[in-house]
Amino acid sequence: MLYIKNSGERSEAELRARLERLLDEVFPDIVYSIQEDSEATMLGCPWIPDEEEGGTLKRRSKLTSKREEELRRMIEEQLKQMDVAFSAALLKLIDEKGMSDAECYKRANVDRRLFSKIRSNEGYHAKKTTVLAFAIALELNLEETEALLEKAGYTLSGSRKLDVIVQFFITEGFYNIHVINEILYEHDLPLLGSATNE
After folding, report:
1. Residue ranges of the domains in the chain?
2. 3-class secondary-structure state, position 33
3. Strand partners, 61
């Protein structure tokens, strides 16, 4: 355990400087600052300071400027490779299915204001029941539904009753949202579309 002690032979500043040089040699990826304090830390762990002198060894994480720049560059590269957002994916599907926007949001039991929010805000985070409502409106198969859900950060789960019911209807090729909502209501589950109060 390292303690900072004042010495009559060497000045405190000299000891601090020598200690910091030593730590920098032994632990090049960590910055240590030596301070007078009643609370002490050694290598990131608490330690009891010298009772007489009360010296403190404080540790803080260090990212060299080169490493920090490298991490920032890597993050920017990852962000450039982000997948298409839910909003863009939905609008593309509507075009591919040959539907008008109005036809799609009406079939999804979604009002015009909510659809407008989704259309105008690329980063809009829709509720899962809204995403499923559009999957029903667009008559997506199971694979397409899962892909659309993924764009919004969701997945179908075999342990959630709502997911199991919706998945059943999609697998059966049954896309009447009002009938599906009746079944969900009977099971005391959230409804698809505007009833979700998004």
Report:
1. 12-67, 86-193
2. strand
3. 30
| Token pair for 154 | 């969701």
CATH of the structural domain 86-193, one choice from 3.30.420, 1.10.260, 2.60.120, 1.10.10: 1.10.260
Three-state DSSP state, 104: helix
Tokens 């589950």, residue?
A: 189
Helix (H) or strand (E) holding 58: strand 55-61
Residue 15 and residue 24: Cα distance in Å, rounded? 14
Confidence of residue 74 (pLDDT cuts 50, 70, 90): confident
User: What residues does 45 pair with on adjacent strands?
Assistant: 42
How many other β-carbons are positioned within 10 Å of the β-carbon of residue 170?
23
Amino acid at 147: A
Q: To the nearest whole number, what is the mean pLDDT of the chain?
A: 78
Distance CA 123, CA 37 (A): 47
